[in-house]
Amino acid sequence: MRLEKCYFCSSTIYPGHGTMFVRNDSKIFRFCRSKCHAAFKHKRNPRKVRWTKAFRKAAGKEMTIDSTFEFEKRRNVPVRYDRELMTTTVKAMKRISEIRAKRERVFYKNRMSGNKEREKAENIREIQKNIELIGAPSDKIKFFNKFLRYSITYRIIGR
After folding, report:
1. CB proximity list for 63: less than 8 A, separation 6 or greater
2. CA distance 94 to 42
3. Do the strands 4-5 and 19-22 form a parallel or antiparallel pair, or are they unpaired?
4. By percentage, how much of the chain surpasses pLDDT 70?
5. Where is the signal peptide (predicted)?
6. Mean pLDDT computed over 129-150
């Protein structure tokens, strides 16, 4: 069973699904759904459309360079069936998927590493900016002091 990739969004197309557009120069474009086909006809750039894999990779949200991607390439030359080769291939496929999942988790963790501190700084800035919306003046001061004390202790303990 051959699984194709959508030309526009790079999602998987299963047999019997999607549409195929063949240009006059015999270049084949496969689309997973009409949304992708319409975007292609409107000459939209997949790297600028936010929901595509191309955008996510160009924006640094997904891994782009990794040795595990080499195994996914399409091979057009059929290989003679060999039972040992098949068993080793299936084992290797499982192992490769585990390695890729682990690398993706590490990539995501590194990408999200500074978000907690950034979010906390934004919250403090928001409170300082709109302190009059919190309540009575005495409550404001108590709340703000408590919040600052908590954030300072969090920084000391967190590091």
Report:
1. 57, 103, 104, 107
2. 40
3. unpaired
4. 90
5. none
6. 73
Q: Residue 129: which residues within 8 A CB-CB, separation 6 or more?
A: none
Cβ proximity of 91 and 100 under 8 Å: no
Nearest partner of 68 among 105, 104, 111, 109, judged by Cα: 104
Render pLDDT for 9-35 as a digit per residue (tens, 0 to 9): 999 999 999 999 999 999 999 999 999
7 residue type, one letter: Y
Q: How far apart are CA 99 and CA 141, in angstroms?
A: 51
DSSP letter, residue 86: H
CB neighbour list of residue 4: distance below 8 Å, 6 or more residues apart: 12, 13, 18, 30
Structure tokens at 151: 């954030």
pLDDT of residue 7: 97
Is the model's pTM score more than 0.70?
Answer: no
- CB contact at 8 A, 29 and 21: yes
